[in-house]
């Protein structure tokens, strides 16, 4: 066989199909503005391409990182290599978008605003997708996933502490509202986690009751399903009148914070939305307890209460925890709507920004909300896997 025929017979390396999609998204991002410059916070923005938004050397570094990242995404590299490269590209992206704000902001100009452009967001999405794919292929154990999340959180914290992002418009909005931001953040956490805690305390016993008393199950789940179909804004509005009546006519109700607007109706609405997943998952988890485990518990002379606490609930717990995870992520997002009825939370900045046509103020409320939901999903997914029967530890 000749050298030419050997070269012809050699198979062409296959390309990563998801990597091709990532490369296409990267190409689209590179063709869009990297940053947006506005002379004032509410003025129309002017897009700046990558070569316009950065000095020559940083722009060259960014272009090289994008090209290398795209080649690694398309090629059949080991998942660990893809993970490392995508994290490096994301780190460069996050650092240079801050430098772009410094580069584009005129000296001593306190009115100009620089925001990440559509190109930055698309590039971030593309390489975040590459990270997600690599993590899925590597199948890290739960504690390793939590450790990666903690490392990313620390890295972002260091980036904020370093001042690299100080000239970005979202950080300027934060600087003007730092005290209000942390106050609304505490309110947001109270609404999201408080409603889930209350729904868990009420929903798990209700799910146990529905499991034990079968005629009750259909009625309870149907009522909870009907509540889920009510739009969130409508439910918040429906609660204003009855809670206002309670505050006016029940002694002590107003003193503990119950009123027609504010945190009370928001908490009640989120609690109501949380019940169905928790009750339904409790029922499903208990239904899926193996008969052999039930028979063994009865053979040991366990009472109904002992079987429930010692056998049924521990085996059903991963399914119940999955329901709690769904509810928590849902409520972190829905808590933003509470601002419409004076409930506070990060939604205050979202709706203020919409009203003022200030998109950076919208981002000040939206970004921490998305980050909280993502972190909660990662942590609870890891916990579900840790407590699952046969799960890795």
Brief rundown of the structure:
This protein is mostly helical and 393 residues long.
List descriptors.
393 residues, mainly alpha, MetI-like fold, 2 domains, three-stranded antiparallel sheet, 16 helices, 3 strands, 75% helix, flat, disordered N terminus, transmembrane, membrane, ABC transporter permease, ABC_transp_perm/SBD, transmembrane helix
SSE diagram, text form:
Layout (H helix, E strand, L loop, with lengths): L2 H7 L7 H14 L4 E4 L7 E3 L1 H4 L2 H19 L4 H26 L8 E4 L1 H21 L3 H21 L6 H8 L1 H35 L1 H16 L2 H18 L13 H25 L3 H9 L4 H31 L12 H10 L2 H29 L6
Antiparallel strand pairs: 1-2, 1-3
Give structural notes.
InterPro entries: ABC_transp_perm/SBD (IPR051204), MetI-like (IPR000515), MetI-like_sf (IPR035906). This is ABC transporter permease. The chain is mainly alpha-helical. The chain has two domains: 137 residues; 210 residues, Orthogonal Bundle (MetI-like fold), CATH 1.10.3720.10. The chain is 75% helix and 3% strand. The protein is built from 16 helices and three strands. Helix 9 packs antiparallel against helix 14. The chain is flat and about 75 Å long.
């Amino acid at each position: 066989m000749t050298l030419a025929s050997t070269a012809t017979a050699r198979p062409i390396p296959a390309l990563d199909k998801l990597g091709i999609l990532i490369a296409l998204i990267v190409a689209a991002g590179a063709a869009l503005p990297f940053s947006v410059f506005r002379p004032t916070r509410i003025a129309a923005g002017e897009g700046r391409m990558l070569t316009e938004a950065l000095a020559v050397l940083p722009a060259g570094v960014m272009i090289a990182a994008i090209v290398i990242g795209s080649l690694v995404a398309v090629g059949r590299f080991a998942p660990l290599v893809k993970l490392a490269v995508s994290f490096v590209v994301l780190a460069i992206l996050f650092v240079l978008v801050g430098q772009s704000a410094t580069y584009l902001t005129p000296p001593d100009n306190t009115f100009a605003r620089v925001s990440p452009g559509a190109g930055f967001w698309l590039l971030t999405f593309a390489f975040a997708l590459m990270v997600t794919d690599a993590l899925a292929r590597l199948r890290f154990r739960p504690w390793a996933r939590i450790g990666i999340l903690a490392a990313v959180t620390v890295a972002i914290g260091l980036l904020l502490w370093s001042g690299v992002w100080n000239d970005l418009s979202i950080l300027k909005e934060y600087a003007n509202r730092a005290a209000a931001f942390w106050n609304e953040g505490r309110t947001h956490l109270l609404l999201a986690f408080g409603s889930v805690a209350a729904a868990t305390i009420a929903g798990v016993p209700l799910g146990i009751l529905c499991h034990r008393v079968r005629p009750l199950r259909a009625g309870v789940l149907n009522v909870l399903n009907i509540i889920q179909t009510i739009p969130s804004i409508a439910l918040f509005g429906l609660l204003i009148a009855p809670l206002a009546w309670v505050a006016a006519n029940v002694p002590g109700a107003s003193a503990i914070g119950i009123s027609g607007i504010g945190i009370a109706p928001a908490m009640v609405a989120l609690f109501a939305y949380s019940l169905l997943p928790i009750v339904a998952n409790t029922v499903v988890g208990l239904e899926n307890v193996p008969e052999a485990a039930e028979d063994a518990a009865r053979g040991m002379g366990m009472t109904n209460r002992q079987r429930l606490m010692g056998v049924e609930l521990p085996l059903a717990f991963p399914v119940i925890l999955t329901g709690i995870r769904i509810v928590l992520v849902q409520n972190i997002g829905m808590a933003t709507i509470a601002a419409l009825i004076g409930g506070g939370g990060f939604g205050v900045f979202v709706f203020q920004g919409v009203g003022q046509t200030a998109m950076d103020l919208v981002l000040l409320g939206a970004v921490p909300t998305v980050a909280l939901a993502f972190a909660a999903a990662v942590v609870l997914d890891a916990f579900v896997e840790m407590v699952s029967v046969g799960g890795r530890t």
